[in-house]
Structure formats: structure tokens, C-alpha cells
Write a structure and sequence with these properties.
Shape: globular
Number of helices: 14
Number of domains: 1
Strand content: under 5%
Distance between the termini: 22 Å
Helix content: over 70%
Strand order of the largest sheet: 1-2
Order of helices and strands: EHHHHHHHHEHHHHHH
Number of strands: 2
Radius of gyration: 22 Å
């Protein structure tokens, strides 16, 4: 069963957080009564979007300063997962502690189970990706080839990079993080479900997250192992499903955040999160940029890899698997990973009496 409730968030960030913790005399959380769409939009902008953009912009400016000082454009990539995890924890725990004078444990215990699962998923995803990016960067010992190409093509790269690259990514991140910032900053959902439906949505969200997380982690691990053994393109394992399984896994992870969101407090605005993430992955800084860089380098430096890349394009989709991948055992390995995640979450929830 679905019920609709239009809420009117308060006009300031402080009072919005206070409403999350306040209760009426009968023990229920005080519900906003205004149905003004304008008031809702202004409230969300002030309580969530503006603070998120300020946080991500701060990270981006710091990354730009460090990148320019070291001539390493890839430092911007460190910020991508790090700022998302920081925003999630500040929204869920840090800000309530600050505004309501709570201890860390009190703020954490006040979070409903589904939102704890959401926060845990964001933390696991972001921490793994941050470690992967930093460790790969340190092992390489120089800037990412993509940024080296950009700097070689544009002598004034650093003079325009802040406005052309760093701050635009902060804007993308502001939208991408909506599914795991807005639920911690709003006290009422605009769409709510009964307990049975919420449980099914939570299971679906956990399954999507675990499948996407496994695909992303397997893609990175298999690629690293392949590079140690051979010098051609990696086309086995999850790389036999699509040409960019790491980006597909990332997209599934961010889609899972919306589904988990719907299981507790859902506002349709959070749908902008996976959409913005998909647009960025496909058309801004993901598979399109990566493959264009590969094509140029391989054509000039490695004819064998270039021929492999052209053949691979004919055989496999870039992002979304074709129907033929239903016969690929690695597809079902990823699906099985998702099912394992659902079982584990249910066991943990039951053991904790949630």
C-alpha cells in the first residue's frame, strides 16, 4: 500500500534538524501541515542542496589547490568518493550532534535501521573506491594518463581547471548525494509504504547494492591481476559482460541508494541522484572519456591493443549488458552476490532485533 503525504519543511537548516528530533505530546513526530510546493522546494534547497554544494565545493577547491601544487590532476578523483562519504556522515550524524548537543552514539542510535543500512552501504562503497584510487595512484607514481593528455593538449590547463572541471564535479556530487543526504535532513516522506512493502524494498536495495559492489570490486581486482600477468586488454571475468563493468557496478550501487531510500523516507527528488551519476559516468568523466583516452593511446603506442579494442567494441556493449549475457556465468555470479547480500542483511537485522 502506498500513501501520499506532501510535507512542508521548515525554512532553515537548523529548524529542519530540530524537527527530526522533536515529538508531540502523544509521542509522535510533529508533522508539517503546509502543502505548499514552493515551501517544500525552498526548504530542501536550504537544508540539503546548499549545504551539500558548500561541502563538495570546499573539497573541490582543496583538491584543486593540491593538484596544481603537485601537478597531479588525479587528486580530484580522490575527492569523488571521499566527499560523498563525508556528506553522508555529516548529514546523518555530525549535524544532529552539532545542532542538538548529542553524543555520537545517541545520534547514531536515533537513525532507523533502513537508514543505518543506507549509511553503511555508502561508507563501504566510498571507502573501497577511495582506497582503490589512492593505492593505484601511489603504485603508478605519476599522474593518470587521462590528465597527462589533457595537460599536454592545453598549456593553460590549470588556469581553467577549477571552473571547467573541479567545481562542475561539485555540482554533480550535490545531486548524486541526494539519496543519502535528504533522508537524514527531512522528517517526513512524500511517499510512504506499508511495512511489508518497505521490507521488500529494503531487500531489493540491499541486493542491488551488493551486486553492484561485487561487480565493481571484481572488475578492479580482475583488471589488476590481469595487468600483472599479461599486457593485452582484460576481457575475461566480469569484463566479459560489458566493456566497463566497474561503471555498471557503480550505477547499480547508486540506484540501490534510491531503493533503500524508498524503504523508509522517500522524496521523488532523490531520483536525481542516480540520474546525475549515470550522466556523469556515461557522458562526462566515465566510460566515454576513458575509452577515448584508450583509443588515442593504443592507436599511437600499442597497435595490438588498439585492434583488440576495436574488436571488443563490436562484440560487447559499453555499459548495459546485451541479452546474450544471460548465458554468461559471470552475470549470474554477480546476481548471486546480490542474493547473498540480502541473506546476510536479514540475518544481521534479525540478530539485532531490528
Amino acid at each position: 500500500m502506498i500513501s501520499s503525504t506532501v510535507f512542508s519543511p521548515v525554512s532553515s537548516q537548523c529548524s529542519s534538524e530540530q524537527s527530526r528530533w522533536s515529538t508531540s505530546t502523544d509521542g509522535h513526530t510533529n508533522a508539517p501541515t503546509s502543502d505548499s510546493t514552493l515551501a517544500m522546494s525552498v526548504g530542501i534547497f536550504k537544508s540539503t542542496i546548499l549545504p551539500s554544494f558548500a561541502l563538495h565545493s570546499s573539497f573541490s577547491v582543496a583538491a584543486y589547490a593540491l593538484s596544481r601544487a603537485t601537478d597531479r590532476g588525479e587528486i580530484k578523483d580522490y575527492v569523488w568518493p571521499l566527499s560523498q562519504v563525508a556528506n553522508a556522515w555529516w548529514s546523518a550524524v555530525g549535524e544532529p550532534m552539532y545542532l542538538n548537543n548529542l553524543t555520537f552514539s545517541s545520534a547514531l542510535n536515533a537513525i532507523p535501521w533502513t537508514e543505518k543500512v543506507l549509511l553503511s552501504c555508502v561508507t563501504a562503497w566510498g571507502s573501497r573506491l577511495f582506497y582503490r584510487i589512492v593505492s593505484r595512484s601511489l603504485a603508478r607514481g605519476r599522474d593518470d594518463p587521462r590528465y597527462e593528455e589533457l595537460k599536454a593538449k592545453d598549456p593553460g590547463f590549470w588556469n581553467s581547471a577549477l571552473l571547467k572541471s573541479y567545481l562542475p564535479e561539485a555540482a554533480f556530487l550535490t545531486l548524486i548525494t541526494l539519496p543519502f543526504t535528504l533522508p537524514f535532513r527531512m522528517s517526513w516522506s512524500s511517499v510512504s509504504f506499508d511495512a511489508e512493502t518497505s521490507g521488500m524494498l529494503r531487500a531489493l536495495g540491499v541486493g542491488l547494492f551488493t551486486a553492484g559492489f561485487a561487480m565493481e570490486a571484481l572488475a578492479d581486482a580482475q583488471l589488476e591481476l590481469h595487468r600483472k600477468e599479461r599486457d593485452d586488454l582484460c576481457r575475461h571475468g566480469v569484463w566479459s559482460i560489458v566493456r566497463h563493468p566497474n561503471y555498471l557496478g557503480d550505477a547499480l550501487v547508486h540506484l540501490s541508494f534510491v531503493v533503500l531510500n524508498a524503504a523508509n523516507t522517500f522524496n521523488p527528488l532523490v531520483l536525481l541522484g542516480p540520474v546525475a551519476n549515470y550522466v556523469f559516468l556515461r557522458f562526462v568523466g566515465g566510460d566515454a572519456l576513458n575509452e577515448a583516452s584508450q583509443e588515442e593511446r593504443y592507436r599511437m603506442q600499442d597497435p595490438h591493443k588498439y585492434a583488440q579494442l576495436l574488436a571488443w567494441r563490436r562484440e560487447k556493449n559499453s555499459f548495459w549488458p546485451g541479452l546474450s549475457e544471460l548465458a554468461n556465468p559471470w552475470t549470474w555470479a554477480v546476481v548471486a552476490s546480490g542474493l547473498v547480500g540480502v541473506v546476510v542483511e536479514e540475518m544481521v537485522r534479525s540478530s539485532l532485533g531490528q
